[in-house]
Design brief:
2 domains, 348 residues, 66% strand, single chain, Lipocalin, twelve-stranded antiparallel beta barrel
Length: 348
C-alpha cells in the first residue's frame, strides 16, 4: 500500500471515529444513575436539584419527574456539576456514589476527591446549563369588585431572576389600583432590580435600585440606590436566612398642594427569609431598614408572601407589604400597607 493510500485509510478511520464519538453524546448524557432510599435504581439524566427537589429525566418516561431530596440515597454521573453545600462551598466536578455509606457521594474535582453528605447539599446544577435553565419567571394578577360602592381593585406583578455559579440577578414589578365612582383612584407602584455577586463561602456583595410611587402618601417617586455586603446565616435544602448591611442613596419627590423633593444618604440593614420545603407551600419574608445619615428618622420596608403550587405551574399567592417612614418630608401618613390575593404562573 503506497503512502497516499495509507494516509487516505487513516483519514477515513479518523472520520469514522469522530462520528462515533459525536453520536455517543446523547447516550452519554443518559448515563446518570439515581439510587433511592427504597432501593430503586434509575438510569437517566440529572436535570437539577434545588429547593429540596431533584428533577430527573429518563428515556422511558414522557416527562421529567421530581423526587424529594430526602428520598434520594445517592447519585452517580460522569458529567460535571456545580454542587452547593450549606457551609457555602461550590464544588465543581463529577459525582460518584459511595456504596454502603448512608447518603454519601464523592465529588471528583480537577484536583481532588471530596466526600459530601447529601444532607449537606443544598443545590446541584449541571455545568452546561443553558440560559433557559437558569431563568425563572413569575407572573400573577388579581381582581376584586364590591357592588355596594362600585369599587374595583386590580393588581398585577411580575418577577424575573437569573442565576449562574457566581452571581444572581433579580428584577420585579408590582402595581395595585383601587378605582371607585366619583373618587380619585388610589394607586401603588413598586419595583426594582438587584445583582448579587457570590464571594468565598457564604459572603456576597450586592447592588441594586428600588422605586416606589404611592398616591395614598402623595409620593410621586421614591428611588433608592443601594450597595453593600451580604451573608447567608443559614442555607439548607429546606430554608435559608440571609442578612446584609450597606449604604443607600434615596431621592423622594412628593406631590399634593406643596410639591417638594429631597435627597438623602442612609444606612441599610436587611433580612431575607425563605422556607421552600413545606410540601407545595413556599413562605418568604423580607425586611429592609434605612436609618438616616444626612437626615433624621428611619424607613422600614417589609414584605411577606405565601405561595401554594397548583398543577401546570400555576399557583395561588397571598402577599402583604408595609412601608413606614418615621419622618416624611410632608404632612402625610407615616405608614401604608397593601394586602394582595392573586393567581399566577411560573416558568422555572
Amino acid at each position: 500500500m503506497d503512502l497516499n493510500k495509507k494516509i487516505d485509510h487513516l483519514f477515513r478511520k479518523l472520520i469514522l471515529g469522530l462520528a462515533l464519538f459525536l453520536l455517543s453524546f446523547p447516550a452519554f448524557s443518559q448515563n446518570d444513575t439515581l439510587y433511592t432510599v427504597t432501593g430503586d435504581v434509575l438510569v437517566g439524566e440529572i436535570i437539577s436539584m434545588k429547593l429540596g427537589v431533584l428533577t430527573f429525566d429518563t428515556d422511558y418516561a414522557d416527562n421529567e419527574f421530581k423526587i424529594e431530596w430526602l428520598e434520594v440515597e445517592g447519585l452517580e454521573s460522569n458529567r460535571f456539576f456545580v454542587v452547593y453545600t450549606r457551609d457555602g462551598r461550590q464544588l465543581i466536578g463529577s459525582i460518584k456514589y459511595v456504596e454502603g455509606a448512608e447518603r454519601i457521594v464523592r465529588v471528583i474535582t480537577f484536583t481532588t476527591s471530596i466526600s459530601v453528605s447529601l444532607y449537606e447539599i443544598v443545590e446541584i446544577k449541571p455545568v452546561e446549563s443553558k440560559f433557559k435553565d437558569r431563568l425563572k419567571v413569575y407572573i400573577d394578577a388579581g381582581y376584586s369588585f364590591a357592588k355596594a360602592n362600585t369599587t374595583h381593585q386590580l393588581s398585577a406583578s411580575a418577577k424575573v431572576n437569573y442565576q449562574t455559579e457566581k452571581w444572581l440577578w433579580e428584577a420585579d414589578y408590582n402595581q395595585v389600583g383601587t378605582y371607585q365612582d366619583q373618587i380619585d383612584p388610589s394607586t401603588r407602584t413598586s419595583g426594582g432590580s438587584s445583582l448579587n455577586y457570590f464571594l468565598k463561602g457564604k459572603l456576597f456583595v450586592f447592588a441594586g435600585m428600588d422605586f416606589l410611587s404611592n398616591s395614598e402618601q402623595k409620593l410621586d417617586l421614591r428611588r433608592t440606590s443601594k450597595t453593600g455586603l451580604g451573608y447567608y446565616i443559614f442555607r439548607t435544602n429546606r430554608w435559608y436566612l440571609g442578612t446584609g448591611v450597606g449604604l443607600a442613596r434615596s431621592y423622594e419627590k412628593y406631590g399634593g398642594d406643596t410639591p417638594t423633593s429631597d435627597r438623602n444618604f442612609e444606612g441599610m440593614g436587611a433580612f431575607d427569609i425563605n422556607a421552600y420545603d413545606i410540601g407545595d407551600l413556599d413562605l418568604k419574608a423580607k425586611f429592609n431598614f434605612y436609618p438616616g445619615i444626612t437626615s433624621k428618622g428611619v424607613r422600614v420596608n417589609s414584605e411577606f408572601s405565601m405561595k401554594y403550587d397548583l398543577p401546570l405551574e400555576f399557583y395561588i399567592k397571598l402577599s402583604f407589604t408595609h412601608d413606614y417612614d418615621s419622618d416624611p418630608a410632608i404632612d402625610v401618613s407615616k405608614s401604608d400597607f397593601v394586602f394582595q390575593t392573586s393567581i399566577g404562573w411560573e416558568w422555572d
